[in-house]
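Repro:
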Amino acid sequence: MGNQVEKLTHLSYKEVPTADPTGLDRDDGPRIGVSYIFSNDDEEMEQQQGPGQDAGDLQDLPEDQLQSPLPAPQQPYDPRLYEVECSVYYRDECIYQKSFSSGPAALSTYTPENLLNKCKPGDLVEFVSQAQYPHWAVYVGDFQVVHLHRLEVTNSFLTDASQGRRGRVVNELYRYKPLSPSTVVRNALAQVGAKERELSWRNSESFAAWCRYGKREFKIGGELRIGKQPYRLQIQLSAQRSHTLEFQSLEDLIMEKRRNDQIGRAAVLQELATHLHPVDPEEGNGEPARTTSEFAELPTLPPTPPPSQLQSQAAH
């Protein structure tokens, strides 16, 4: 019997188990387990399906391939309106954090032309726009980036890769120790031309992050686990409330985090709020009551929260 990963697709948060942040499982060896992915692939494919194209043909395409380029937004892009504050934990360690608490300039975006003045070789660049998946790239110098786009790793001018979207340098989001700038550039350039079955990454973010940090966790199938789910995505709902979801691998967590970026802050908060209030069967809909124990409600955490604040209220 070979190693297998069973992937369960959940269409809503109410079907997802909450995190157990005790982190008692210290076995770092290969494990086999279940991955939870929160996306409705059928709806995604239906929206992007072209004339005469079967939806089944798109099933294996990464999200960056599924979305069609959209024109640049006419209104200024405000991260506070569209993006979700969140943190990612591997057991007790915070490995990623997107927060507006660092000041209004923390996640500021720039036009592609102005962004060039801020980039250095080895930097990670993120292009953002409302209702689109964020697109990541590695700046390699000479006004160029290497990025995973439409099932191929390509070398493009930064202004072309942006497709009119605003961008920013995002070296500080992941908290892993980065490789040297020359190594990051070398990793990226070595993959130029890789396409389709040769690819080891599901989206542009995973590819760019792998180039900078060199961790196999960013690759497809880089982790096979069983038992407790070691990764937790903590979504900040308000100044005093947050919810945590657990994942079997970093790859799957990134997919859900990017889905949240694509649907936007308002949709994420509404999606969660729908399941925060129990439904009383006596009110006439005949459905069983849902409890808030499906989510882990936590107090507001500081930028580097101690593990003791990550206690879950999940019911067993």
